[in-house]
Amino acid sequence: MAENNSNFMSGVPELLVLRLVREKEMYGYELVQAIRERSNDAIALGEGVIYPVLHALERDGALSSNRKTVNGRSRVYYSLTATGVRRLDDLAGNWSRLTEAIQSVLGGPAIGGVSHA
Amino acid sequence: MAENNSNFMSGVPELLVLRLVREKEMYGYELVQAIRERSNDAIALGEGVIYPVLHALERDGALSSNRKTVNGRSRVYYSLTATGVRRLDDLAGNWSRLTEAIQSVLGGPAIGGVSHA
DNA sequence: CATCATACCTTGCCGTGAAAGGTATGGCAA
DNA sequence: TTGCCATACCTTTCACGGCAAGGTATGATG
Fold first, then answer.
1. Which residues in chain A are contacts of B89 at CB distance < 8 A?
2. Going by DSSP bridges, is the β-strand pair B26-27/A26-27 parallel, antiparallel, or unpaired?
3. Model confidence pLDDT, tens digit, residues B33-42
4. pLDDT tens digit string along A97-117?
5. Is A7 within 8 Å of chain B by CB?
6. Which Gene3D superfamilies does the record match to this protein (chains A, B) (predicted)?
7. Domain assignments of chain A as residue spans, ordered by start
8. Which CATH class is domain A12-96?
9. Closest CA to A14 of A70, A89, A108
10. The domain B12-93: what is its CATH number?
């Protein structure tokens, strides 16, 4: 085990961004609102979270950007690269395993639990 | 800023500790291992995480401690107070809502999705 | 013309988790 | 005996991620 899963709770904003962009190319401001709406206001990530994530993701080659002007408004659209797809699968897998693990703790004595009479 | 809703991802170590202690009183070292075992090694929180959590929880009146000596070994057992039960329910609810929200983003277009016909 | 909504971005703070180190004792093996 | 590992407690230190807040610019609206 070369690398322990340190920071086990992080990367959720990244995960959400990647997942949304997978459906169609989107721009930052749009993502902020999409996350709010799709989560029924349960998750409200500000622009101060989204933009840095977007830039980091692009730097890593997980996203590619192209600038468009719509109605005189300049937008930076991001779309998923092949690297981004892998990154998404990776993060989604981690998240899934994490929540299952937590669930198995919350869910009481081990499923195949040893009942020491 | 005690009950701040920000930092939406935090409090999981706390949640796990409270949940485990609910079943029976436990001591720090034991909790570290219990979390590892119950999560099938998916979550490995060190003592540097657990002890501070324990102390904070006791300070807040969510846990009560009593020292025992077993086999010449001194252990500090923690058990859940009424306040702790409430805290647990609270955290568990938050966690549940959070994971559902994330799931509803990951799961694609809204469940009760508006099909703009 | 002023104000709001859109759209982008950065700086700086702070909480949290994690590593690492420190103390002490009991058990076991060399 | 000595030394080392496991048990058991605890603290200090650090890094990083999320977030508020602030800053720029432009189009629409009244």
1. none
2. unpaired
3. 999 999 999 9
4. 999 999 999 987 645 444 433
5. no
6. Winged helix-like DNA-binding domain superfamily/Winged helix DNA-binding domain
7. 12-96
8. mainly alpha
9. A89
10. 1.10.10.10
